[in-house]
Amino acid sequence: MNLVVYVCFALAGSQFQDHCREELITLHNITPQACFMKAQEVIAEKAPLWEGERIDGYRCFPRNRH
User: Fold this and answer.
1) If residue 35 lies in a helix (H) or strand (E), which one and from where to where?
2) pTM, full prediction
3) Which of 29, 39, 42, 65 could, after both became Cys, cross-link 8 (CB 3.0–4.6 A)?
4) For residue 63, is pLDDT > 50?
C-alpha cells in the first residue's frame, strides 16, 4: 500500500523559490484540497512571524513513500 504524503511550503515573495523558505506541514493520507486548507490555516497562524516579508501563498507537493 502506498502512503501519499503532502508537503506544503510557504512561498516567499511573488515567485516560487527553488529552495522553499520553510516546510509548513507534512500530512499523511489526505486529499490535496484538505492539504491546501490546512496550509492556509498554518500561514494565517504564522503570519506575524513573517513580519516584513510578503507571503503570497503556499504550494503542496505529493511525496510518495513506500
Assistant:
1) helix 32-46
2) 0.46
3) 39
4) yes
